[in-house]
Amino acid sequence: MCRNNKLLILEDDKARNATLRAIMDFLGEDGHFIGFNELDAHIAAEPLGGDYVLILIGDDCPHWGEELVAKINAWNDEVAVALIGSAPELSDFATPLKCKVIGALEYPATYNPLVDLIHRARMYCEAQSANKKRAQQRPVHLFRSLVGTSREVQDVREMMSQVADKEVSVLITGESGTGKEVVARNLHYHSDRRDKPFVPVNCGAIPAELLESELFGHEKGAFTGAISARAGRFELAEGGTLFLDEIGDMPLTMQVKILRVLQERCYERVGSNKTVPADVRIVAATHRNLEEMITTGGFREDLYYRLNVFPIELPALKDRAEDIPLLINELVSRMESEKRGSIRFNSAAILSLCRHSWSGNIRELANLVERMAIMHPYAVIGVQDLPAKYRHVEVEDENFGVEQASAEVKGTSMVSLSDTPLLPDQGIDLREYLTGLEKGLIQQALNDTGGVVARAADRLSIRRTTLVEKMRKYDLQR
Prior knowledge:
This protein folds into 4 domains: 6-135, 3-Layer(aba) Sandwich (Rossmann fold), CATH 3.40.50; 142-315, 3-Layer(aba) Sandwich (Rossmann fold); 320-414, Helicase, Ruva Protein, domain 3 (Orthogonal Bundle); 429-478, Arc Repressor Mutant, subunit A, CATH 1.10.10. The chain contains 19 helices and 14 strands. The protein has helices at 14-27, 39-45, 66-75, 95-100, 111-135, 151-163, 180-189, 208-216, 233-236, 252-264, 290-296, 301-307, 324-337, 347-354, 361-375, 402-408, 430-448, 453-460, 464-474; strands spanning 6-10, 30-34, 52-58, 80-84, 101-105, 170-173, 198-202, 241-245, 266-268, 275-277, 281-286, 310-313, 344-345, 380-381. It comes from Gilvimarinus gilvus.
């Protein structure tokens, strides 16, 4: 969370400064006033950027422009910038710097606009601080599917902690989309092999006639089209971990050769009789029932026991529905850290998602979150916004209390309108965004109260006459 709280005012006009100082004193804000030509000296005196949340710049500043904002950003990349006076011209600014300039404070300054500007500056500062914190955390590919408080996920974490640093083969089973590769990557990350390669191979995606060459490599001229020697996945994973995904799809002829590598720790390239030692840890995964395949002759029993030294079974998402709110939070955080947008879901939408069967598991959930972020960027998603198959709560019953939703998902935290909004890199039309938000909340208040304007005004904490004016402005009906 951003802990900055000071305001820096860059302005030569004494009358403007006097007005702003009076309002800031009334608000209890810590404002520092300097002239246009004093900024460089101020930056030199506070090389770490100070504790500023907002820099207000007079619109007659001779240095106003992208160069000045870039200088401020290099000094303090969490502080927001606004102009005192006319709206800023940003058309020629680079996208990251456009986001930094959050608006303008009309002169003469008044109480409400300044309070609003400071609030938005703190939101910007918190968003920048949160992005920094996420960037310093472990790689994003390590979080998915391991987030949650359910007993099933805790059991998986416990098993992973027991085997991560052991030199044994692991067989990960579970439905498609439950995060088998994520578990494999975590096992590698927490092993003594973490500084060596992690090499994934999807055994079902490679044609049977090419799989041997793909795994073991080949010599020049070993077969038609082999115009040069090539290293295989075992060689690329030397010293690290080889992840054999969907090993249940591997042909029987290749199963024999994989068994030999596991037993003898060596292999030969296709077209060569030279034995190559293999210092590789094998982690395999499948969504198939290998024991049934052994019965029908589709999988070798000896290879199964070589791979299944330590089995880890991943639960289906429908069996850990209480983790869905936390998973959504993490998926949204990942999108935001990768600068691919943002979104929020209200309590009713999350409850509806918790009731879904999720045949595609976490992969399906991730796809839904991304789709909603594309269709409704930076919006709060309700049940009516979800695709039809995900609506398991009646739209007219959407406005229930958070307590009911919390009870159904075992008290886990909700993603709601109270979450901190993040400013997109490309910027937004703030006036249009706030207008749409206000219009939506007014309509919701009217719907909740059966069109009784006085009660809707109470819910919005505004006067009845003010609400009537806004209804007329937005052409809203009871």
